[in-house]
Specification:
The chain is mainly β. Helix content is 12%, strand content 40%. The chain is built from two helices and eleven strands, in the order βαββαββββββββ. The strands form four sheets. It has a four-stranded antiparallel β-sheet with strand order 8-7-10-11, with no helix packed on it.
């Protein structure tokens, strides 16, 4: 039995702003119009009325998004057609824990190749042929488990790596 490993290269789209003062919400709308990406974030936590100054020419979209979010405690990552905005992880102050588990469907069958990703980061793994995974994340992280044809599930990691 073999394991297939591959690499995925994501090419982000460029964005431009002409020395403008915009709210974060307006900036997000302009980025959506320029790129086709959609933003996903908790509107109760992020102050989208905060003003930012933007002056970029054909800059990488994720660089611009993270500059916009500078000082807010949030960061953005690209996931497919979405830019996911979530709280930035401050790993200097947090202890990492190995989290292991098995992803199963409603019938108890293992889900092979499910993505297990630390929310708001690119830290992720795929389940093996038995649905098992192991990932190292800081305490109090959120893991998102997703697979084609299944509903995405978010799980909180307690201190010591417990789900």
């Amino acid at each position: 039995m073999g394991i297939l490993a591959c690499c995925l290269t994501v090419f982000a789209q460029p964005v431009s702003f002409n020395g403008e003062n915009l709210t974060i919400g307006q900036a997000f709308a302009r980025i959506e119009a320029q790129t086709g990406y959609r933003f996903a974030y908790n509107s109760a936590g992020l102050d989208t009325s905060r003003e930012v100054y933007l002056d970029y020419r054909n800059a990488d979209v994720i660089v611009v998004v993270n500059d916009i979010l500078s000082g807010t405690g949030y960061r953005g990552v690209i996931d497919g057609d979405y830019i996911i905005i979530s709280p930035a992880v401050q790993q200097d102050d947090e202890r990492a824990a190995a989290v292991t588990g098995t992803v199963r469907d409603v019938n108890g069958q293992p889900v092979i190749g499910a993505a297990v990703i630390q929310s708001g980061t690119s830290n992720g793994v795929m389940t093996d042929d038995q649905g098992r995974f192991s990932i190292e994340v800081p305490d109090n992280s959120v893991l998102e488990v997703s697979s084609l044809g299944y509903r995405t599930v978010s799980l909180s990691v307690s201190p010591g790596g417990r789900l």
